[in-house]
Amino acid sequence: MSSPPTLAIETSGLRKLFGQTAAVDGVDLQVPPGVVYSVLGPNGAGKSTLIRMLATLLRPDGGKATVFGHDVVRESDAVRRRISVTGQYASVDDALSGLENLVLMGRLQGYTWPRARERAAELMDAFGLTHAAGRLVSTYSGGMRRRLDIAASIVVSPDLLFLDEPTTGLDPRSRNQVWDIVRALLAGGTTILLTTQYLDEADELADRIAVVDQGKVIAEGTTDELKASVGQVALHVRLRDPGQRDKAEELLTQELGAPVHLEGDPAELSARVEDNSRVLQALGALTRASIEPAEFSVTRPSLDEVFLTLTGHKADDQSAGEAGEENAA
Amino acid sequence: MTSSIEGVDDRVMAILVTHERPPKASPMSATITHLWRGIMAFKHFPAQLIDIILLPAIFLLLFTYLFGGAFAGSPHQYLQFFLPGIAVQSVILMTVYTGTAINTDINKGVFDRFRTLPFWQPAAIAGNLVGDVLRYLIALTMTIGMGLALGFRPGGGILGVLAAVAVLIVFAFSVSWIFAAIGVVASVPERVSGTSMIVIYPLLFMSNIFVRPETMPSWMQVLVKVNPLSHAATASRTLMHGTAGFWDVMWALITSALITVVFAPLAVRLYRNKNTR
Ligand SMILES: Nc1ncnc2c1ncn2[C@@H]1O[C@H](COP(=O)(O)OP(=O)(O)O)[C@@H](O)[C@H]1O
Ligand SMILES: [Mg+2]
């Protein structure tokens, strides 16, 4: 195959306005098929609006978006045949049982009654919901609802699955279950676009990440590329003898040309360095001065730090504010 | 497929990913599926039946025994006049449910999921409406059954009553398109029922359901005459008593057709173009 495969998603200059606010403000994305692509950003960044446009649920105000080469506005039917959406808020029918919800989806996808029932039972089993199959969804826990919601999206396996904040508000166990499902779907050939506010989630699952803030993509790439783009490594040193820390601080500051932090542990120091090569020099200088590190590590920044550097605010800054607004409403 | 994924065995993998591509559901099958959904939901909440039964019962007893003597000489006399009318009210009050159900779907996000599925979209509304027909049947059976128990004697016999039921269902079906449209545009389900009651109650009382218009001032008589509910009540009354002329029934059917022709495409159009949050 010489020609490049059709991109799962391609957007250019995609925009959506709500009154004066640009919820999505000129987004260019390229998502290859067969990956988990994560859109990472704080509350209000425009993630849901972006997904809704790509899933043909919301009409863009500007720019262009295609899914497997089909325009999301002009060829929405063709797009709908390839995709499935699990929205931010579970979109299952509370007034039906879990099993009935899946039968409903199967029927609307074109299965016969017997096959729809069979497929529904299979999925309830695969998602560990068989024990609650006959119960009304309104009695389900958050994790169970979320799993049912994802199950409803894959009654017929989509080529592209949108998952809008699939783990927000879930306990760690349910979160791990959702992660396993995502990995399994990927292994089965489904391309996944997943939004999240959690850096560790993007780090854990995604092949590529777009960091969005205020409707704009502010960084894009693999996890490694994003970390590298911040251009820093963190050096962490733990000394055998805490009494040597002042001396070590002096030496490191000199060799690294960067401020050195004294950690809470009296034997530890750390520093952020622009240039990797200086780290070796600095460690050499310590050894020559007979200051022996018990251990040291050179790590690249966490996505948290990347986000902070890129946006100037922490990833969850705004979510605290939003929660406050919800209470006020 | 090898299972390199922790916690997910091969069997589960095989289930998660299917390569089946069933053919697109036909409009008929999608509508039946939505109808099934309504019936299942009804099965889980039989308490809805109380609404359907209680409201007509209260009105029937209240009007027959409180006002019957004053309106028509005796409760028994009044019942003969009133029952075919209250049957109209029984079904009309049910049509509001169509709107609240559609609105609930939209607000809950179920609508979003439907919209990304490749079936004939109006089926979601049509299925709802057909399901509501079952509600109308229950409401009518209750109302007429209770009337018979209280001494209602339809001159048109069983055929007359069945014909009246058929016309009332056609009429209610058409009216439910109005509430379907309101259900699509309203912000919350409570709005749907609130708005609807403001419209419905004046229409109910400004009709010939409760009293003969002859005693009203002439301007009021005009309003009563053009009120669609009066057409429905006239058809119901004349059919049940076996006195129906051609136009007594035709007016009800023409009114139903007009309402459907205007509001069915409107509701479907609004639904298709609806952009939610
Ligand atoms: N229907 C709407 N009407 C008005 N403003 C909206 C609407 N939907 C989203 N917004 C605004 O657009 C911005 C992006 O929202 P959203 O896409 O939901 O962000 P995210 O999913 O990243 O939290 C926010 O400022 C939000 O308030
Ligand atoms: Mg969102």
UniProtKB/TrEMBL annotation, chain A:
Membrane topology, as annotated: Peripheral membrane protein
| Keywords carried by this UniProt record | Antibiotic resistance, ATP-binding, Cell membrane, Membrane, Nucleotide-binding, Translocase, Transport
List the SUPFAM superfamilies hit by this protein, alphabetically: P-loop containing nucleoside triphosphate hydrolases
Q: Give every ABC transporter domain span.
A: 9-239
Q: Is Signal one of the keywords?
A: no
User: Where does the protein end up?
Assistant: Cell membrane
Which Gene Ontology MF annotations are present? ATP binding
Domain of life, per lineage: Bacteria
Q: Which residues form a coiled coil?
A: none
Please name the InterPro entries in this protein's record. AAA+_ATPase, ABC_transporter-like_ATP-bd, ABC_transporter-like_CS, ABC_transporter_ATP-binding, DrrA, DrrA1/2-like_C, P-loop_NTPase
- Family per UniProt? Belongs to the ABC transporter superfamily. Drug exporter-1 (DrugE1) (TC 3.A.1.105) family.
Name it.
Answer: ABC-2 type transport system ATP-binding protein
UniProtKB/TrEMBL annotation, chain B:
User: What are the alphabetically sorted keywords of the record?
Assistant: Antibiotic resistance, Cell membrane, Membrane, Transmembrane, Transmembrane helix, Transport
Q: Note whether Iron occurs among the keywords.
A: no
Where is the protein localized? Cell membrane; Membrane
Alphabetical list of InterPro entries matching this protein: ABC2_TM, ABC2_TM_bact-type, ABC_2_transport, Nod_factor_ABC_transporter
Which parts of the sequence belong to the ABC transmembrane type-2 domain? 47-274
Per the record, the similarity remark reads: Belongs to the ABC-2 integral membrane protein family.
Protein name in the entry: Transport permease protein
Q: Which organism is it from?
A: Nonomuraea roseoviolacea subsp. carminata
Keyword Transmembrane helix assigned: yes
Q: How does it sit in the membrane?
A: Multi-pass membrane protein
Transmembrane region positions?
Answer: 49-72, 78-98, 133-152, 158-185, 192-211, 249-271
> What Pfam families would the database entry show?
ABC2_membrane
Q: Which PANTHER family match?
A: NODULATION PROTEIN J
